[in-house]
Amino acid sequence: MSYDDVEIEDMEWNDELQSYTYPCPCGDLFQITKEELKIGEEIARCPSCSLYITVIYNLEDFLGDSKKHVDPSKQQPVAVA
Amino acid sequence: MEETERIKSIEEEEEEIWSWGAGTEGQLGTGKLQDEHKPQLIHSLSSFGPISHLSCGGAHVIALTPGGRVLTWGRGTSGQLGHGEMVNCLHPKSVESLEGIFITHASAGWNHSGFVSDTGYVFTCGDGSFGQLGHGDYISRCSPVQMLHFKARHVEQIACGMRHSLVFLKGDTEDLIYGFGSGKRGQLGISDDKQKSVSTPQVTLGFENVKIRSVTANGDHSAAISVNGHLYIWGRAFHGAPDMYTPRRVTADLLFSQVVLGWNHALVLTGDGEVYMLGRYNYNVPTGAQKANGMKHISEDKGVLQRVLDFNSTKVVQIGAGAEHSAVVTADDGSVMTWGWGEHGQLGLGDTNDQTGPHVVSLCNEQSRKPCVGRVYCGSGFTFVIRTYTVNSSF
C-alpha cells in the first residue's frame, strides 16, 4: 500500500542523490530519478525501509528536455507583486 | 531551609536517558550509526549534567540543560544542529553560538530547529527552503539566527513541523500565534485560501480572545491547547477530509492538557489522564487491524476522536508522537508504553513489528524498580526517554 500520494512539485530536487525526494516517516527520504520518471515510473522508494509513495506528475514534462524549456517562454509574462 | 534540615535527608536526583529506533544519522546519541530495537542507556549526555527538556525532529535531537545550555546531535546536513557546519554529529555537542544565552524552550522539526530564550528571543537554523526559518528569505542557516520580526516581543514557544513553524507569544492584550514556512496544506492557518509559502511570520487566525497554553507542529499539521483545555487543530486533514486552512476547535466534552502530532495522527491527553487519538497510522497495516485493538469510538465528528485504552488501567501523565508511532508515560510507576509503526525498532519492544495497541517497554536497569518520573519524546522514527529517580540518603 502506498504511504502517500505526493505531487512532483512538492518533492525537492537533491543534487547529491540526483533524485527528487520527499521526507519518509522513518527519517530518510523517498527518492525517484528523472530517468525513472521518463519511463513512467510513479513509485518513489525509501532506501531505509519498506515504505513507498506514489508520485503524481505529467509524464510529458519529463519526455525530452526541449519541450519543458520551450513552454514557459510561450506564456504571457506574469506580473510579480 | 528549616524544613530541609528537619527532614535530615538529602534528596538527590539521578537521571537516566534511553533511546531506541532509527539511528542511521546518529540521532540516538549512542555513537553508532545503526537502528536499535531495544532501549539503549545513553552515557554521552552524562558529562553535561541533567537534561531538562528534549525535542526530537526528523533525525536530530535538541537537549536543554536546567542552566539554559543547548546540545544537539544527529543529522546536520541542513544546518539544523546549529554547529556552524552542515554535517552530522554522532555525539551531543554544545551549540556554541547560543552560549551565554539562557535557552528555555526548543523545537526540532524535520530538518530545522527553533530556540527560545528566557528573555523571549527566538532563534532558528537549518533548512530554510520553504521559509520555515522566518527570516524573510528561503535560505538555510547552519548557526541559530535571531528572528528580528519578534525582536520587541516576548516569545513563549516555537514549534517546528516538516516544512513550517509556529511561534506563540503573549501580547499586551491577547495571545498570538504566528505561522511561517510552507502553508500548502493550511498548516499556517493564516488565510482561508490556499497559501504556498511565506518566509515572514503571519498571524494565525481564529485565536482572538483565546488564552494559549501551548502550540505544536509536526508533518503538515498544527495544533494548540488553550488555557481552558480546548484543543485546536489546523493544516493537513487526518482522514482524507478537506485540509483545514484555519484553526478548528475539536468539539468534545473533555478538557485537554497536552497534544502531540504525528504525520497522520494526533494524540491528546486529558486532565484526567485519558488518551485520545485523532486520525490513524498511515503505513501498510491493514485498516481493519488498526481499529481492532484498544480503541473506542467517541464521536463521529469530522475528526473522529478515539479513546486509547489498555494502559494497564492506570492514568497517563505524558504523551509523545513520532511520524507513525505513539508513546505514553503512565502515572503509577513511570512505565513507558508504545504502539504504532515498528519497522525501525521505534517501539523499543525488541523487534520490528507494528503494534495496534500499547505495550510496555522494558527499561532494564538495577534502578528500574524504584519509583521514578519519566518523560518521553519521539522523533520521526525514534524515541527518547528521560527517567528521574529521587534517591533519599538519610543520616
UniProtKB/TrEMBL annotation, chain A:
Annotated Gene Ontology MF terms? metal ion binding
Q: Which domain of life is it from?
A: Eukaryota
Report the Pfam families cross-referenced here: Zn_ribbon_CSL (PF05207)
Q: Give GO terms for biological process.
A: protein histidyl modification to diphthamide
For this protein, the record's InterPro entries field holds:
DPH3/4-like, DPH_MB_dom, DPH_MB_sf
Q: Which pathway does UniProt place it in?
A: Protein modification; peptidyl-diphthamide biosynthesis
DPH-type MB domain boundaries: 2-58
**Which Gene Ontology CC terms are recorded?**
cytosol
Going by the UniProt record, its keywords in alphabetical order are: Iron, Metal-binding
**Reactions this protein catalyses:** 2 [3Fe-4S](0)-[protein] + 2 Fe(2+)-[Dph3] + NADH = 2 [4Fe-4S](1+)-[protein] + 2 [Dph3] + NAD(+) + H(+); [3Fe-4S](1+)-[protein] + Fe(2+)-[Dph3] = [3Fe-4S](0)-[protein] + Fe(3+)-[Dph3]
* Family listed: Belongs to the DPH3 family.
Query: What is the protein name stated in its UniProt record?
Result: Diphthamide biosynthesis protein 3
- Protein species of origin: Solanum pinnatisectum (tansyleaf nightshade)
TrEMBL record, chain B:
Domain RCC1-like: start-end pairs: 17-385
Source species: Solanum pinnatisectum
Whether Repeat counts among this entry's keywords is yes
Keywords tagged on the record: Repeat
The parts of the chain that form a coiled coil are none
Q: In which ranges do the RCC repeats occur? A: 15-67, 68-119, 120-171, 175-228, 229-272, 334-389
Residue ranges of region Disordered? 1-32
- SUPFAM superfamilies found in the cross-reference section: RCC1/BLIP-II (SSF50985)
Give the protein's recorded name. Answer: RCC1-like domain-containing protein
**Keyword Repeat included in the entry's annotation:** yes
Give any Pfam family that matches: WD40_RLD
Q: Return the Basic and acidic residues bias intervals.
A: 1-10
Q: Which InterPro entries match?
A: RCC1-like_dom, RCC1/BLIP-II, Reg_chr_condens, Ub_ligase/GEF_domain
